[in-house]
Amino acid sequence: MKKQLIAGNWKMNGSLQSNAALVAALAAGAGSAQCLVAVCVPAPYLAQVQLLVAGTRIDLGAQDVSQHESGAFTGEMSAGMLREFATRYCLVGHSERRQYHGETDALVATKAQRALAAGITPIVCVGETLAERDAGRTEEVVKRQLAAVIHTNGHCISEIVVAYEPVWAIGTGKTASPEEAQQVHAVLRAQLQAATAHADRVHILYGGSMNAANAAQLLSQPDIDGGLVGGASLKPADFLSIIAAAR
Ligand code: PEP
User: What are residue 213's phi and psi, to 5 degrees?
Assistant: First the structure.
């Protein structure tokens, strides 16, 4: 059975000083972790955190990548640049990027492709809004979002990580129940199975107000292979409790 993956998303938080303290606490506490651990940090801190996590159980992740390979795209970061800092993972299509930066399914799929081509595992985020859930459209929405990534990435699809993050649960303190989350994860797994013989290799993470109190139950569901953790990943004790709940 594959190890679960617990990935922290620091979002636009941190400083040189606070990052050093956070990673030191995580490295000290995560030494005996059963699961894989990663932190997705703001781009300016990749070089710093690359050094901080070297020799620890923690892998480095970025929060976004350009759809372009190189050139006149001011402000963008290419996958090749991220790779130079030993970036192992990169979030793509986080709901905050879809919502505030107008990222479409097709753009997210291309970003995943760029990451894969550079040897970085894209963590592809999918999830429905509250209005979509209330309208009974959850499955349709997440399947559409994942279908674009499958379409663009073909047989490489077994190399991605998927994060199911109901938008209404992100940063709100509201969490999908373990049963609700499992239901969507099973749908995503079936979609991957239709696309690749290696669907069981794909980590499908749950994200959305995962915390020390609810992690164990969520992580015990058969198709939940880990967590994408925002707010709680900035608090060492909370993030370490989530890591301890993972297998
Ligand atoms: C996220 O940003 O991916 C996330 C899941 O945030 P939070 O845990 O704070 O809901």
Answer: -80, -30
